[in-house]
């Protein structure tokens, strides 16, 4: 699943591509994706609305519309937003597609949004877990508010991080950072990488962490998220940027996806175990 840096990258690129455009017509091929609205109501209500801007909250793409409405998109496992201008190159974000966004619509196209200027936004989703919601501001808040703190927000200080992290002292680092109600947007890649930089095992119980280890974890988390956004995300199996490139953070991975390869710091083979239901990567020598 795309994590914070990947959704941030897609949102920033879409913001440039579709801000100021007005929806003309919409075709929804998979009605369950736009629930609770019917496909017909969804299409009718979004038509004539203008895109004011695109941002991100947690792992959700937030498209602000005229008339105080919002169009929310969750890419889930394999969702992809592809913007095709009237002329020029397609802009693709999310799950990679073999043909790089040509030959659209195709078998995986679940919804098509035509703009008044002749350009089109396609939502493709191989596994159909993604969703699209057209909501009012109050409805948007009900969906977004339960998500935890935004780690890149200026208000997200070490004190706030410590307070959230230590809320459940018997949980492990991985269990805690995965909890989207505490801190939003973290996933497997960035939890393993932040733990490596902080020299702590992701399987460590929170109560066992010293003050300085918590501070290192906080700084490491911000470091990996910021670097990854700068590099336009990580391409594991399931992500390309909205220009269709693979994310550049993959070059900076120290542990994730590197089981049995030598540690970049000490040369010890990177371990991989299953923890909290996920493949968990670490160096047993560098991390305590
Ligand atoms: Zn090592």
From TrEMBL:
Entry-linked Pfam families: Fapy_DNA_glyco (PF01149), H2TH (PF06831), zf-FPG_IleRS (PF06827)
Cleaved signal peptide residues: none
Recorded catalytic activity of this chain's protein: Hydrolysis of DNA containing ring-opened 7-methylguanine residues, releasing 2,6-diamino-4-hydroxy-5-(N-methyl)formamidopyrimidine; 2'-deoxyribonucleotide-(2'-deoxyribose 5'-phosphate)-2'-deoxyribonucleotide-DNA = a 3'-end 2'-deoxyribonucleotide-(2,3-dehydro-2,3-deoxyribose 5'-phosphate)-DNA + a 5'-end 5'-phospho-2'-deoxyribonucleoside-DNA + H(+)
Keyword DNA repair: yes
InterPro entries referenced in this protein's UniProt entry, alphabetically: DNA_glyclase_Znf_dom_DNA_BS (IPR015887), FPG_cat (IPR012319), FPG_Glyclase (IPR020629), FPG_N (IPR035937), H2TH_FPG (IPR015886), Ribosomal_uS13-like_H2TH (IPR010979), Znf_DNA_glyclase/AP_lyase (IPR000214), Znf_FPG/IleRS (IPR010663)
GO terms of molecular function: 8-oxo-7,8-dihydroguanine DNA N-glycosylase activity; class I DNA-(apurinic or apyrimidinic site) endonuclease activity; damaged DNA binding; zinc ion binding
One GO process term, biological-process aspect: base-excision repair
Cofactor(s) recorded in Swiss-Prot or TrEMBL: Zn(2+)
Domain FPG-type: 254-288
Keywords: DNA damage, DNA repair, DNA-binding, Glycosidase, Hydrolase, Lyase, Metal-binding, Multifunctional enzyme, Zinc, Zinc-finger
Gene3D superfamilies linked: 1.10.8.50, MutM-like, N-terminal
Similarity comment: Belongs to the FPG family.
Protein name listed in UniProt: DNA-formamidopyrimidine glycosylase
């Amino acid at each position: 699943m795309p994590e914070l840096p990947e959704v941030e990258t897609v949102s920033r690129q879409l913001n440039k591509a579709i801000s100021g455009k007005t929806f003309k017509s919409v075709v929804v091929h998979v009605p369950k994706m736009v629930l609770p609205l019917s496909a017909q109501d969804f299409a009718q209500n979004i038509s004539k609305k203008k895109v004011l801007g695109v941002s991100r909250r947690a792992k959700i793409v937030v498209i602000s519309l005229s008339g105080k409405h919002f169009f929310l998109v969750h890419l889930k496992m394999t969702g992809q937003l592809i913007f095709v201008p009237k002329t020029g190159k397609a802009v693709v974000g999310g799950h990679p597609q073999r043909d790089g966004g040509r030959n659209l619509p195709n078998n995986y196209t679940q919804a098509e949004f035509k703009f008044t200027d002749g350009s089109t936004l396609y939502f493709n989703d191989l596994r159909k877990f993604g969703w699209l919601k057209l909501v009012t501001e109050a409805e948007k808040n009900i969906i977004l508010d339960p998500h935890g703190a935004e780690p890149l927000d200026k208000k997200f200080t070490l004190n706030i991080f410590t307070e959230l992290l230590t809320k459940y002292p018997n949980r492990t680092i991985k269990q805690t950072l995965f909890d989207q109600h505490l801190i939003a947007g973290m996933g497997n890649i960035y939890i393993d990488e932040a733990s490596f930089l902080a020299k702590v095992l992701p399987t460590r119980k929170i109560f066992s962490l010293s003050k300085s280890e918590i501070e290192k974890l906080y700084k490491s988390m911000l470091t990996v998220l910021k670097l990854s956004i700068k590099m336009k995300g990580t391409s594991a199996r399931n992500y390309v940027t909205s220009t269709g490139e693979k994310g550049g953070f993959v070059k900076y991975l120290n542990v994730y996806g590197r089981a049995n390869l030598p540690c970049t710091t000490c040369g010890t083979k990177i371990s991989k175990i299953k923890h909290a239901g996920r493949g968990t990567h670490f160096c047993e020598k560098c991390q305590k």
